[in-house]
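The following record pairs a protein chain with its ligand, NAP.
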Amino acid sequence: MTTDTTMTAAVYSRFGAPEEVHLDQRAIPSPKPGEVLIRVHASTVSVGDHRARARDIPAGLGVLAAIGLGVLRPSRPILGMDAAGVIAAVGAGVTAFAPGDRVIASTGGAFGGHAEYVRLPADGPITRAPDTMTFEEAVTLVFGGITAQCFFTQVAIGPGTSVLVNGASGAVGTAAIQLAKQLGADVTAVTSGGNAPLVTSLGADRVIDYTREDFTAGGDTFDVIVDCVGNAPFSRVGRLINPGGALLLVISDLRSMVSSRWHTRRSGKFVTWNVGRPGADDLAYLVSLADSGRFRPVIDRTFDLADIVEAHRYVDTGRKRGNVVLRITHLESDAIRPGAAGTKK
Ligand SMILES: NC(=O)c1ccc[n+]([C@@H]2O[C@H](COP(=O)([O-])OP(=O)(O)OC[C@H]3O[C@@H](n4cnc5c(N)ncnc54)[C@H](OP(=O)(O)O)[C@@H]3O)[C@@H](O)[C@H]2O)c1
């Protein structure tokens, strides 16, 4: 429960198992000039939270990850890479948002979404929440949606482009299918058989059950391959990519990262691991699709903040479908009072 100055947050002070995460009271941040304070109603527990908490980092990237996550102990004790909620206060100079606005935001590598309040730069990836969605639905646009969208803006996808999505049933994969279909692509989804109905319902034209069939063995080729699993480096799938096509490595190890430019130069096929800089425009595009019924939230399970350990345990299975939502409920009397944290108009 919040007081005027404190909030409930899910925190971890050591890297490790889900049980390292527990609820604690933290100071409600005050928005500085150019920042907003969001009263969070929903976040997701993503594979990004799992990776940070468990230090489950792709090969070769441990040192780089330690810079962002902390060396001996977590430098960002509140996880949560996204948030949906209401602007509670704005810092000096913020005109794009006002208290009361319903928003969704990507907190990204700064984390912080698993708390009653989060403070963010107003010019970052924040936008109005879709009118048609609850906060629990709206927050599912952020983690997978912004990732898929940022990769797709780097390549040409249009009517008839053949796109293979490896790992199609996760948060990024379910978004990638929907965004590719939106652009008119012909989509092949790689997932296990049990998830075939899900990916088909999102628009996939063809499904390859990876438990029965190796998608690299069939002789089919694609204009764009999106790897959301980490088992499709250029050395394995380069020959499946049509001339001038692209390999989007949503997850990759250091070796794939350093060789991507070389592969691009040598093959003429664009290979990238770089998501780019997610912005408010990317989120706004997702919202416009959602508001017109062209992007569907995919929610596997919903947990209350109090059940954060359970939520982490479930995400740790690696089997989640779409998103695991974290519901953060507030008592009306818990709302911060004017002046307690920045400007509340
Ligand atoms: N570059 C970036 O900025 C960025 C951003 C977001 C995420 N990522 C990374 O992208 C990856 C995907 O993220 P996510 O959120 O989509 O993950 P996720 O939601 O945790 O993915 C879970 C899904 O992966 C599927 N899966 C597991 N093994 C598979 C395999 N061998 N072949 C096909 N599907 C398989 C599972 O389906 P089954 O149960 O059917 O196996 C499950 O539905 C993660 O490694 C994450 O760290 C990178």
